[in-house]
């Protein structure tokens, strides 16, 4: 197994910046008991900043600004907006809120769930979460708040989706506690404050006007290995039929198709011709039927690949990267395959990304990924169906819609055609409904709507309106909310993320690479795993003696992961538990680490994901809200 070099120099960069700050005579104060985490505060509305600790020449400071703390004098703190300084002035400590963690909450798409309520006290939030009729109680609280009646609700999530990747905001989590319920999953009660980004000043569009400009791109990602020709023909025919139906309608300007083909690695089967190939991308600048000649030559391979599983992740990655998704409000991929996907640890994988990492990349672009899985007799004979179904259910998870997984029993071409036709027309129907441009005869009157595509389309519509209208997070000083819908705890209402700088993500990657190297080197002698870890980390540590007393992996990953409300796969591993889990489980852990490293490289390679909170805009201090599930 090989892992490419990372984007920064790991722990070295994390060491260099504080050194530079010390050279300038300025270093933020450390949090009590920490060695690398600095004190930070968020200003309350009404805060002022003075030139010195006496309060001289105080000027107003915006609420919800994030600052590092450099010194404390009586009731004032000296602050700056960058870890390397300079200090900007002094603020009354009572006008700030300590932010000990870098946890933040981000709204999930509200399609298919109730809007998030922010309540005034933990008691009111606890009562709501544990009430037997919590759904009805939440609905009553929302009605009262919208009617202007006094009550515990101090803020409500906007109706539109607030996409942190397009309209950055901070919803810092000061504390997260677990609340167990009589049924369903446990819920995190969150103590939060709100720090929305400044508005752009753009005049909001009215919803009908904005929705008429809603455009959608649907890209098919098709397995074109041997024996797939009937399905290729049926997909091409379905695209042709839909284009014929909509070609002379007003909605034709709002919808485009694309097609990406994939096969497998050419390293052991050169006769496959290609691993992935982009036949057409959805192009609003060309007529809708321009795709038909572009895809007319798609055909299956003339030779068989080396294994039943193929590189579906490479096809998905190619479709994610080759399309300008920013031009579309509706962003849809439909993967069509009869086989499982090569895992990230497969030596013939082109991307070396796992299923979870591929889903993260699609989610970062706001793409809904559908999977049409052909349950053919050949797959049954290869005992591939259950394994592939598990992969594709995970790959196609999309918010409250669940898994966008469509198995085709028997896998016959005549059974496949109605599935792909129905899925395509359902998505187009949703676009027609959204834009207010109906297409006569598109969907039979007696056709039952697909509840999954309805939720996905609502999600796309809310995300599009959020971007078009610059929807911001609500202004809240402090409040309490939950990470799941009180009416249905299976639906997540907010994601808990960790705001990591490039330096911190690089440092985390360096730690993971050290762990991976030690695990790979110790495969024949696993009893030396921790000894090698301690030696490797001690070589670059400021206090090597402290490393020699570490008895689990957690402390080696970085203090910024301490206290987070998630269960790490590797943090609790000790030498004894490493030996007890056996070679197969050890290999799984190492493969997961390798996949995480590749995901972090993907995060780094996408500049649109990174945001500067400081005015200096130091490259290493740009931040990205890393989802908890993307942590090791």
UniProtKB/TrEMBL annotation:
<protein>
    <submittedName>
        <fullName>VWA domain-containing protein</fullName>
    </submittedName>
</protein>
<feature type="signal peptide">
    <location>
        <begin position="1"/>
        <end position="23"/>
    </location>
</feature>
<dbReference type="GO" id="GO:0004674">
    <property type="term" value="F:protein serine/threonine kinase activity"/>
</dbReference>
<feature type="domain" description="VWFA">
    <location>
        <begin position="217"/>
        <end position="372"/>
    </location>
</feature>
<dbReference type="InterPro" id="IPR036465">
    <property type="entry name" value="vWFA_dom_sf"/>
</dbReference>
<dbReference type="InterPro" id="IPR002035">
    <property type="entry name" value="VWF_A"/>
</dbReference>
<dbReference type="InterPro" id="IPR052969">
    <property type="entry name" value="Thr-specific_kinase-like"/>
</dbReference>
<dbReference type="GO" id="GO:0005737">
    <property type="term" value="C:cytoplasm"/>
</dbReference>
<keyword id="KW-0732">Signal</keyword>
């Amino acid at each position: 197994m090989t892992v490419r070099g990372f984007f920064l120099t790991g722990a070295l960069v994390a060491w260099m910046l504080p050194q530079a700050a010390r050279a300038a005579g300025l270093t933020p104060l450390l949090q009590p008991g920490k060695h690398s985490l600095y004190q930070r505060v968020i200003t309350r509305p009404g805060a002022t900043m003075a030139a010195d600790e006496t309060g001289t020449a105080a000027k107003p400071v915006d609420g919800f600004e994030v600052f590092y703390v450099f010194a404390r004098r009586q009731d004032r703190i000296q602050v700056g907006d960058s870890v390397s300084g300079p200090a900007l002035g002094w603020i009354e400590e009572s006008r700030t809120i300590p932010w000990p963690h870098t946890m933040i909450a981000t709204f999930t798409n509200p399609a298919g769930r109730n809007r998030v309520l922010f309540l005034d006290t933990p008691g009111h939030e606890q009562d709501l979460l544990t009430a037997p009729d919590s759904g009805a109680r939440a609905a009553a609280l929302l009605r009262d708040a919208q009617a202007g009646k006094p009550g515990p609700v101090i803020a409500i999530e906007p109706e539109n989706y607030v996409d942190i990747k397009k309209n950055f905001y901070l919803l810092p989590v000061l504390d997260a506690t677990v609340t167990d319920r009589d049924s369903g999953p446990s819920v995190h009660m969150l103590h939060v404050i709100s720090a929305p980004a400044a508005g752009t000043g753009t005049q909001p569009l009215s919803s009908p006007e904005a929705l008429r400009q809603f455009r959608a791109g649907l890209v098919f990602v098709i397995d074109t290995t041997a024996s797939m020709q009937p399905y290729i023909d049926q997909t091409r025919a379905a695209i042709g039929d839909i284009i014929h139906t909509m070609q002379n309608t007003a909605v034709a300007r709002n919808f485009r198709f694309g097609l990406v083909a994939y096969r497998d690695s050419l390293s052991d089967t050169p006769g496959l011709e290609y691993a992935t190939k982009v036949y057409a991308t959805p192009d609003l600048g060309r007529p809708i039927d321009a795709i038909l000649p572009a895809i007319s030559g798609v055909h299956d391979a003339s030779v068989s690949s080396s294994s039943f599983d193929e590189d579906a992740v490479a096809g998905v990655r190619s479709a994610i990267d080759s399309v300008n998704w920013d031009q579309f409000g509706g962003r849809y991929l439909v993967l069509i395959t009869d086989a499982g996907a090569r895992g990230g640890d497969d030596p013939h994988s082109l991307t070396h990304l796992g299923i979870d990492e591929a889903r993260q990349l699609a989610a970062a672009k706001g793409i809904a990924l559908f999977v049409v899985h052909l349950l053919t007799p050949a797959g049954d004979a290869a005992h591939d169906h259950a394994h592939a179904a598990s992969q594709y259910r995970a790959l196609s998870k999309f918010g409250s819609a669940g898994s966008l997984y469509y198995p085709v029993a028997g896998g016959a071409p005549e059974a496949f055609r109605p599935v792909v036709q129905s899925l395509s027309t359902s998505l187009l129907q949703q676009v027609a409904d959204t834009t207010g441009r109906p297409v006569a005869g598109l969907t039979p009157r007696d056709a039952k709507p697909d509840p999954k595509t309805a939720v996905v389309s609502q999600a796309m519509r809310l995300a599009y309106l959020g971007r078009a209208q610059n929807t911001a997070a609500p202004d809240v000083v402090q409040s309490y909310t939950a990470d799941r819908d009180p009416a249905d705890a299976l639906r997540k209402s907010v994601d808990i993320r960790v705001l990591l700088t490039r330096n911190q993500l690089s440092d985390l990657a360096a730690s993971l690479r050290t762990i991976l190297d030690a695990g790979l080197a110790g495969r024949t002698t696993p009893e030396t795993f921790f000894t090698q870890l301690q030696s490797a980390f001690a070589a670059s540590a400021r206090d090597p003696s402290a490393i020699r007393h570490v008895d689990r992996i957690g402390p080696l990953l970085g203090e910024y992961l301490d206290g987070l409300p998630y269960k790490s796969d590797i943090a609790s591993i000790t030498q004894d538990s490493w030996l007890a889990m056996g070679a197969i489980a050890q290999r799984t852990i190492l493969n997961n680490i390798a996949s995480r490293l590749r995901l972090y490289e993907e995060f780094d390679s996408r500049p649109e994901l990174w945001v500067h909170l400081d005015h200096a805009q130091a490259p290493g201090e740009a931040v990205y809200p890393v989802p908890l599930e993307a942590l090791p």
